[in-house]
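stuck on this one:
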Amino acid sequence: MGFNEAWEIAKNIPGWYHEEEARLLYESASTQNIPINIMEVGCYAGRSTRILAEAAKETRSTLWILDRFQHENPLPDIDAKSSVLKILEESDAYFVL
């Protein structure tokens, strides 16, 4: 899966990244062509997490995520932690929470 396919999924997840920002994030995380450690601090509901997970999958990298999941403005009707766990499971990327 490349960026376009990842974005088709990620754009429906609540978050702040727009397509061009997400593309830069994906490219930054996947251009090494060797396994690396990727760290995301604060993932909200997982839009950027989905992009990073797909980039990590491309290079067989490890995605580390750090988030307390205690948002000041919680998302209505969304359990952010469950959302992120589902994203990681679906992406089949290597990850550590």
